[in-house]
Amino acid sequence: PAGVYLSQASAILSCSSSPKRSHASDVEFVDHYAVMELDNWATSEEIKAVYRRLRGEYFGSNNVIKYRALQAAFDVLADRDARWAYDKIWRARKGLPIPPPLKSQDSVQKARDRVNVSVAEPPAPALVEVEMEVEVKEAEAETEAVTVVYGPLIGTRPYHSYIPLLEVYDGRDVHPKLKCGRPKY
Q1: How far is Cα 81 from Cα 101, in angstroms, rounded to an integer?
Q2: What is the pTM of this model?
Q3: What are the residue boundaries of the J domain, all occurrences included (predicted)?
C-alpha cells in the first residue's frame, strides 16, 4: 500500500520465524551499528544524536542508499524491543552471548512495590484520622474563600441605548466639531 514504510529491519525480524540459515550464506544481514558508526553499548541518546548528525550529512549529499540504511538502522536501534531482537541476531553472528530478556515496566514496578511495602511501616490509626480532619477543614476553607457572590449588572447604571444622530449632525453630512462624516446605513 502507498504510504507504508517497510524497513530492512522489519524484513530481518520477520525472517526470524523462518527456518534458520547459516551465517555465512546470510547475505542480507545489515550491521546497523556499523551503519550508524556506533558500538553495541550505545545509549538511546547517543543513537539519536548520531542519527541527527548523519541524517544531515546523507540528506545533504543526496546519497539515497546511505540515507535509507541510516533510517532502517535508526528504526531498529531506537525501538527497545526491536533492538533487543536485533541484538540477539547480531550477537549470535559475533559469537557473543545473547542479551538478557527485557524487563517490562510492570515487573519493575511490582519489584519496587514489594520493596516499598516491606520497608514501609503502617501509619498509626489516630494520626490518619487527625490528618483527614485537617484536610477536610482546609478544603472547606478554600471553597468558602473562593466563592464570590455576583450582583446583577443589568439596570444598575443608566446609559444611552441609541446614538442621537439627527440631533448631533442636525441634518448635515459632516459633524460640526469632529469634522467626520455622518455614518451611512
Answers
A1: 10
A2: 0.44
A3: 31-90
